[in-house]
Amino acid sequence: MTPAHLKAYLNALVVHHLQISTMLWGLPGIGKSSIVAQIAQDQDLDLVDLRLSQLAPTDLRGLPVAEAGISRWYPPEFLPQTGRGILFLDELNMAPPALQGVAQQLILDRKVGSYSLPEGWFVWAAGNRKEDRSAVFDMPTPLANRFLHLQVEPDFESFKSYAIAEEIHEQIVAFLAYRPGLLHKIDPQQPAWPSPRSWEMASTLHRVGLDIAPAVGAGAAAEFTAFLSLYESLVDLSPILSGHGQGIGFPKEPSTRYATTIGLALRAQDAVEAYNAYTWMVSVAGTEWVHLFIQDLFQQMRIKGKIGQLAVLVRKDPKLEQFMEGFLDLAGST
Fold it and tell me: What's the structural domain count of the chain?
């Protein structure tokens, strides 16, 4: 499933109070941990994020302390005692078998030693697969059988939605729209390679003028640098956003079209600029490019709280409203 589908599935588990232990499988850097953190925030849940590969069995079970001639296990302070939340056991299958055995009791019985997980907590875990060139241990069959297993794969549309919401640099979003194959591409010969996680780091570097190769690798960085040369020849988008785009044509080269389309969607600061850009796109671009633009523009306006104002403006123009209805019909059928 895509990251967007994964988020929807996990949200449904929370909404319906299905406290079934759940294991997330996927490539390194794909965003499994980030999705869990987003759900905790959206659902107003506490989050305890444990990297099991960094713990010893006694770290999870606690330490024995003598009391009245018998040993009592004192649980670690990081395990939740009250409230509602998600106990997230990340890097589960990177943990050695002895620790996985302790975790199995927590996953199956919601308790370990003298500790019991409060009723309002979900137990989710994540790990990488052997075929992803990760240093992992085999998960014992009894442990694996305690989980729901959700496989997640890279998906540019899911990443783009996240990138717009998190204000990842426009040029990186436009580049990956043109070269979605570079969203996630493991290079076993290099320490740095492109993934959703490393592109987010690259955005931070690019925003302050630093080379992004240390984040995504030399190959992806070289392609991105070549793509940036397109921005030097990109038409000035300001007149379009201000409603003076008459006479400005839609670019012919595909990479420049992606740059223009995404640039307009992300630079629109209010409903009027969005409406002006929408009007220009409908007048100069093909249907597929208008639909791509609408998708990104609507998300941007929702984030800014301007979608209602944009809808009012669009409904005044029958041609624009027709495009919007066509887009909604297309989105509803996919």
Answer: 2
Residue 287 domain boundaries: 156-332
The tens digit of pLDDT for each residue in 90-121 reads 888 787 777 777 888 888 888 887 788 899 99
Domain termination site, one of 118, 152, 186: 152
Question: pLDDT tens digit string along 274-306?
Answer: 999 998 998 898 888 988 898 889 888 888 888
Cβ neighbours of residue 267 closer than 8 Å, sequence gap 6 or more: 170, 237, 241, 273
Contact 273, 241 (CB under 8 A): yes
pTM of the model: 0.73
